[in-house]
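#random but structural
TW: two for the price of one
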Amino acid sequence: MAEQAATGNSGAVQRFLSVVGADSMVSSVWGYVDTTIKWCWIPNWLPSWCPTSQIQLQTAETKMLRCVDGTFSKQFVPISNANRLWTLTIGSDHAKHRTPIVLLHGFGGGVGLWAHNLDALSQRGPVYALDLLGFGQSSRPQFSADSQEAEEQFVESIEQWRAKTGLGSMILLGHNLGGYLAVSYSIKYPHRVKLILLVEPWGFPKRPDTEEADRPIPVWIKALGAMFSPFNPLAGLRLVGPLGPTLVQTLRPDFKKKFSSMFTDNTVSEYIYHLNVQTPSGETAFKNMCVPYGWAKRPMLQRMDKLHPDIPLTIIYGSRSSIDSNSGSTIKEMRPSSQVEIITIRGAGHYVYADQPEDFNRRVLQVCQKLN
């Protein structure tokens, strides 16, 4: 959710944090300074201050998935270094031969946020949704502080997961950070990818050199930023401890609306809360992959020429999103001999798959129909 938009500095950081509603607390301070200081003690004591646990996260996810009609299974898939990736599998038995769709969530997300999409997409064939390494119920190891090495850790975890699950090839559908990783994976393992679908992807353009000059940063924000720079982007949510669940409900009521056809209680906000107050492993890696204001240190547009030209690419944006869709047009221009399609979902914001799920599911299935 940290993709760059034309709405200015604060907007980029607010979208970076918007998944849990912590943007109003720490978005104004995290993105405005260089985050080079590290306080190693923070992750150790903050989670104990929060009313959460692995069991509570599991329970919250179970509630999120209770409206999925299809039969699905969940398991930990072991990868290297004793790590495990939490995986949900669903699909029609009569279409097992089709290339599976693999869902990669965005920053701060998890498999439960695909609740609107699992039944519809699985009518075509197998669907896998996994919690990325460092997020959700997956293992939360220590990532490298080097942005390239952290990215490679994410990519290798996906490849090891693929090998363990026995998938020969995949359709990768990634939202936000998941889109960035889908392309990074496809560059390294092109023979394993039949199609890429990028949904409101993060991390493609580079940070403009003129941004700060065009939009000066208030002194008070710089001062607060200097104080909060050692913290991870969602540290504010952990910092408030027992107030965290109420904070999510108060600051992000739109998430309840996105899933109002499924839930009338606080199921969604509780799930989002428990996802993001565990040990900040993937969160720390993501921060290390960013420069101030939420731009990627290693912009993906600079590497698109390394993506195999035979891999079709579809980019999906929401018409009401503040994300800058210019990257989609740039990719299309960069790949004149490749199949590149840009889709805009009317009435949808950044969380396209939850804002307009029926339209989103229909368009995804239309794109995938061209494959076996």
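TW: number two ↓
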Amino acid sequence: MGIDVLGADLGFGMPVVAFQIDGTGDHAHRKYQIYSLTKPARLLNTITGADSYEAADSDLDGQIEIWTDDAAALDGFEGVPLRSFDFAPTVVLRFEKKRLVDVSPEFSSYYDAQIAGLRGQLDPQDLAAFKSSDGALSMNISRSGDERHQLARTKIKVLEIVWAYLYSGRDSEAWSALQDMWPPQDLNRIRVALSDVRGRGILRGIDRASKATKHNRQVHVYDATGSSGATSHAVLNPNGGAPETSDYEPIVVQPKSILLRRPPPDEVEQLGASDAALELLVDSAGKVRSAKLLNGTDKRWIQASAGWHFIPALRDGKPVACRFRLSVWNLK
């Protein structure tokens, strides 16, 4: 069990804690459980069917997505074990009015990068050989071990391209790519199989967001680098009551660490003691989005910070993205 977020609002209108739970040791059957931090704590939602889950305020607009995958449904697809695929189809979820929706189409640029990378790995001769095969790569057909391996790798790349289109909401482009790259006599069979695996996976029963793109959402990042307490001075109303709204700037409370792993010990210990000052940008889910080394020489702190988890910064009691400074050290 591991904590993914603590103190963030995943769309329930309250701070929550979310756990990744692997009860069987089988990564393809992890659970993501979200509990309220109110008293008494309540289980708000459970997501299943993935190999990993990570909440993030991807656009720094205060809306948190859960980046996950469709690993459980994919495992064994076309007789291929999950470990043989480069990755499971990416799925991006968000709670909107406490209802879980699929917002993957909002992040088409992410899927486009996947597609471009996969297309760049496809050799034209290997693709032509696969298109001349039976598609299912039946064991009844005599092939050398190397030939079978290369056909299988090409098939996997084609499947990964097609589902990148499918899971980003571009079905017509998915079927067009499939027609271009798949053996014609096997086209109908594999199209039905792909639709079936998506229908029984993590998206079963989950609605798709009504809008495929975000429009003019403003980035909100609060800067706490200028003061150790991350506070602003409030101008109080001389007549009593609430501060003047025109002058009042709510206090921003800096993120608080819940999981900070140092760089790999075997590497750092070769250098002896190591310390650094970092400037971090932590989003409203408590995840590090960028890091800059202000002093010190061990740049491995930058790499280590990518996996750090924080209670997010709070402004008026609500989680916000915040830029702040943190001193770290590692003793030999």
